[in-house]
């Protein structure tokens, strides 16, 4: 099994690393924004510009993400949050029949992020880290505990 790990390079990367026990034994790759922290990651790292930081990079970033999925052909996409990149990546993954899992940010105690509100419609699994978020994010949201 191959897992694609999507996350911003800040707190979302920290959350992804907290989940290391769930993915480290599998073939995996990261898709994240350019950052000094990503150089220390174990495995292949694809750097994609964050459209929240560089809005004009969005079309190129989406194209690079699509090419990465076509090249890597993951069985699963796991995201702890990659700004607005999750939306086109999850949509494309759905077309490729790749299983998608989105873990809502730990800081969202009783709701969903803007990205989460859209991605939960496409994601195969939508996980939240707080019991109140399970109630307020809708029937697809599942609480299984926090990761931090």
Explain what the structure shows:
The protein has 148 residues and is an alpha/beta fold. The protein has a single domain, classed as Glycogen Phosphorylase B (Rossmann fold, 3-Layer(aba) Sandwich), CATH 3.40.50. Helices cover 35% and strands 23% of the residues. The protein has helices spanning 11-18, 20-23, 58-72, 86-95, 114-122, 131-136; strands spanning 2-7, 27-32, 44-47, 76-81, 99-103, 125-128, 141-143. It has a seven-stranded parallel β-sheet. Helix 3 runs parallel beside helix 4 and helix 4 packs parallel to helix 5. The longest helix has 15 residues, at 58-72.
Compact overview of the structure:
The protein has one domain (2-143): Rossmann fold (3-Layer(aba) Sandwich), CATH 3.40.50.2000.
Strand order of the largest sheet: 3-2-1-4-5-6-7
The major sheet is characterized as:
7 strands, parallel
CATH architecture: 3-Layer(aba) Sandwich
Helical content band: 25-40%
CATH top level is: Alpha Beta
Label the structural class. Answer: alpha/beta
Listing every helix as H and every strand as E from the N terminus to the C terminus, the arrangement reads EHHEEHEHEHEHE
Mean pLDDT: 91
How many strands? 7
